[in-house]
Structure to design on (524 residues):
């Protein structure tokens, strides 16, 4: 503000004396955006336009902190972002790049939504973690959303920068990443890691990404007839086949229809393969698969012969006609609309322990439950197995003597009619960073209070070896109220302190971190 001086020249200079911005005496106000964090100098002098530049003035500096560059310009300085939580940012200065890192899972569809504040548009790209930082998806500098399906598990980056379509793009924004885990690729792409499938149980899966192959295996018996029924969810068509590698036997729907039936030529292992149908406009989508066996194959009845025409002499004895033998047709098991047994996916770094819940949902009048859980023993080892909240009033048993499989059994004195965990498995991570293990369910048997056998939907999960996002205490990939509780347990000494929960970066886990996590969870 000018006192009795008629004008001033204002300049902002670096410590080496070079100028960043200057008013050149034309105005006594100067707006400037800092290109980097550091110390700068304000230099006031008499403008060259005035003969007499002597006089008084007052300097007042105001900062618009909403444009503060809070996010790094490179992958090494990327801000970790959780799902469903809005993160504020700003394009400032004009050449600014804001990097956000997130842990993806193969097949999951991610939506990156921009909510514009003072800027009217940005360039939003999804990039890989390779040296060249390949652009995998983009909004091309216009619009507000980008949708992308992850081709692999791992770390990826959302990068926000100036839109090339705008003259002035400086301003604020909010970025939110949402995930559609229904499309997660829970079944491996190679036969040796095929998901074991039982008879009569609906197993959920998804064709995602488009080049996905889902393998299932089961032991077949010679001359037994089997039926494979695929119930389409969001997928419009699926190609599926059954293969026995020992004999070269195969049968397929060739992408058309939802059922095939075949007779096993030998006793041995059979593999089911599901992939995208060529005729589907959008091959990505969910499905459920049910395998049933219908008894031994029955040969078709011999054709009936025409009775001979009688003649006066001699009269032949009529030939008895063979009685047609009815062919037993196996009836595909209907998809149950109630009970679901789900393995929750988790992420944890090497050497860490992680709790993996097996959830029982939509349970009605269930009083007995048996199932097997399969995992890769080279990725994780069992520390303990805990009884779940929905089996707390039941007789609960398990057997984990064989690495790679846990066998569970529960019986209840009264019916289970609510959602909750059937069991919780505590794993220690022994695999290398970047590796993962599918966690699948099979061989289930469910009974109700009326003595009837019931079917149940089996939904597998996965265990990924990698760092979790900041504040994600249970490794589920999201910031929730549970993470705030985990931070409080660390503060009072009920759990070992993990600085990944130090979201305010003060070097320790405190109630302030819990409050901030709870606020983040409410935003999501």
């Amino acid at each position: 503000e000018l006192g009795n001086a008629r004008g001033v020249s204002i300049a902002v200079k670096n410590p080496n004396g070079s100028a960043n911005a200057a008013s050149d005496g034309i105005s006594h106000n100067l707006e400037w955006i800092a290109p980097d964090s550091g110390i700068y100098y304000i230099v006031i002098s008499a403008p060259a336009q005035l003969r007499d530049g002597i006089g008084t003035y007052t300097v007042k500096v105001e900062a618009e902190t909403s444009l503060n560059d809070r996010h790094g310009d490179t992958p090494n300085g990327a801000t970790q972002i959780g799902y469903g939580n809005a993160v504020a940012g700003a394009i400032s200065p004009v050449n600014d790049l804001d990097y956000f890192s997130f842990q993806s899972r193969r097949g999951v569809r991610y939506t990156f939504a921009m909510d514009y504040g003072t800027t009217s548009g940005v360039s939003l790209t999804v990039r890989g973690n390779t040296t060249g930082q390949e652009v995998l998806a983009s909004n091309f500098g216009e619009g507000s959303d980008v949708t992308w399906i992850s081709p692999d598990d791992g770390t990826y980056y959302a990068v926000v920068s100036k839109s090339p379509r705008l003259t002035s793009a400086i301003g604020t924004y909010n970025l939110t990443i949402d995930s559609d885990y229904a499309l997660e690729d829970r079944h491996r792409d190679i036969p040796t890691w095929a998901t074991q499938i039982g008879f009569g149980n609906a197993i959920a899966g998804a064709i995602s990404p488009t080049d996905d192959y889902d393998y299932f295996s089961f032991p077949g018996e010679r001359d037994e007839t089997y039926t494979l029924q695929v119930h389409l969810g969001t997928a419009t068509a699926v190609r599926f086949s059954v293969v026995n590698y020992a004999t070269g036997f195969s049968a397929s729907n060739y992408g058309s229809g939802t059922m095939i039936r075949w007779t096993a030529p030998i006793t041995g292992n059979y593999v089911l393969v599901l992939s995208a149908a060529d005729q589907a406009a959008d091959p990505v989508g969910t499905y459920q698969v049910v395998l049933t066996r219908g008894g031994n194959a029955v040969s078709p009845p011999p054709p009936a012969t025409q009775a001979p025409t009688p003649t006066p002499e001699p009269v032949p004895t009529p030939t008895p006609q063979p009685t047609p033998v009815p062919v037993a047709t196996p009836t595909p098991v209907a998809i149950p609309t109630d009970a679901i047994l789900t393995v929750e996916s988790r992420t944890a770094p090497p050497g860490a322990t992680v709790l993996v819940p097996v959830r029982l949902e939509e349970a009605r009048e269930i009083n007995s439950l048996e199932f097997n859980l399969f995992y890769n023993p080279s990725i994780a080892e069992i520390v303990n197995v805990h009884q779940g909240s929905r089996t707390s009033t039941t007789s609960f048993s398990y057997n984990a003597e064989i690495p790679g499989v846990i066998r569970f059994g529960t019986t209840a004195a009264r019916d289970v009619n609510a959602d909750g965990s059937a069991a919780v498995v505590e794993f220690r991570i022994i695999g290398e960073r970047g590796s993962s293990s599918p966690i699948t369910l099979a061989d289930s048997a469910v009974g109700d209070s009326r003595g009837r056998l019931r079917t149940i939907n089996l939904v597998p999960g996965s265990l990924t070896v990698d760092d979790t996002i900041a504040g994600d205490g249970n490794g589920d990939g999201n910031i929730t109220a549970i993470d705030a509780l985990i931070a409080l347990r660390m503060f009072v000494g009920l759990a070992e302190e993990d600085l990944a929960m130090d979201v305010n970066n003060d070097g320790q886990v405190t109630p302030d971190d819990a409050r901030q996590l709870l606020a983040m969870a409410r935003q999501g």
About this structure: The first helix runs from residue 481 to 491. The chain has five domains: 1-62, 67-183, 191-296, 340-465, 481-523. Helices lie at 481-491, 511-523. The longest strand covers residues 436-448.
